[in-house]
Each structure stands twice: as C-alpha cells, then as structure tokens.
Amino acid sequence: MKRYDGIKNIMKYVTNEIVVGNIGFPSRELYEIKDRNRNFYMLGSMGLASSIGLGLALSQKEKVVVLDGDGSILMNLGSLVTIANQNPNNLILIVMDNCVYGSTGNQPTYSQNIDLLKVAKSAGFKNSYDFNEINFKDILIKNQTDSTFIHYKTSSGNANVGIIDLTPETIKKRFMDSI
Questions:
Q1: CATH, residue 24
Q2: pTM, entire model
Q3: Domain range for residue 40?
C-alpha cells in the first residue's frame, strides 16, 4: 500500500480533529484527499511536524493527529523523547514509513535498518502500535491517558497530485481561525 492510500485510510475517520501534514508530498496528498480548515499543511521545516503537533496538543483540547514520515522523524528523534515526557493524551503521532525521503527523490532512509516502533517504545511511548494491528477508528475516538505513536508501513512512491494552491498565509489564517 502506498502512503496516499494510507492517508485515505486515516482520513476517512477524521472528523473534527486537528491534523498536521508532513512536509512535501504527504501534505499535498492530504490536501487532495481531504482538504479542511483544521489541516495544517507544513510546507517547510522537515522534521518538525511532530514538534508542531506537540505544541498544538499542549495548547488545545481536541485530538491532534500528526501525519509524519520516517525521514522526518529520523531527522528529529528528540521529538519522540519530548512528546513521551510531555505526554499529552490528545496527541496521535502516525509515522508513515516508506523507507525513503519521498519528497526529495526517494533516497533511502535508515528506517529500513531499525524498528521505529521499538524506538518509540524505548523513548517512553506507552501507547505504541503497528497500524495493521489496530482499529484506527477505536484509537481515534477512545479517550487515551497517554500520547499515542502509530507506525504505518507503506511502500515508496508519491501520488500524482497537484501542488497546494493556497498561500502559506492562507493556510495559517484558515487553520488558526478554525482552532
């Protein structure tokens, strides 16, 4: 399954939750699948979707779903430790792991050599799951007592989607107005 289909699987259950899309193609795919004001499309700052999601989870009551990538999470592994220690119960961090830097030319990442689920558990995530072994809808609607990490293995490749035709200012304004 490609990341595009994985994002579709996730977004069919998202209703009023805040969603942070990872840099590049993941945000573009999210935009095409289910554009909404409560989506934050991160157009730059590779590696920071998890940190942005943490800040939102600490400042909002609603659930925050972060769609991150393996390359981005590897770039900012410190965010896993910080999230696990801050432990907001309304944060769901989903790492879409396709073993490549999809937005920059599909160069391989080191996720093919390590188990990101074990990394999250060792960082302190009490709720750590493989996407294929859970019912995501149940995770989304359940009131968690801790932050949640979900590893979602996908195949490499980007969907043939257009660019996000919103300015960064428009993305920010409509997102801020919605939360």
A1: 3.40.50.970
A2: 0.96
A3: 3-178
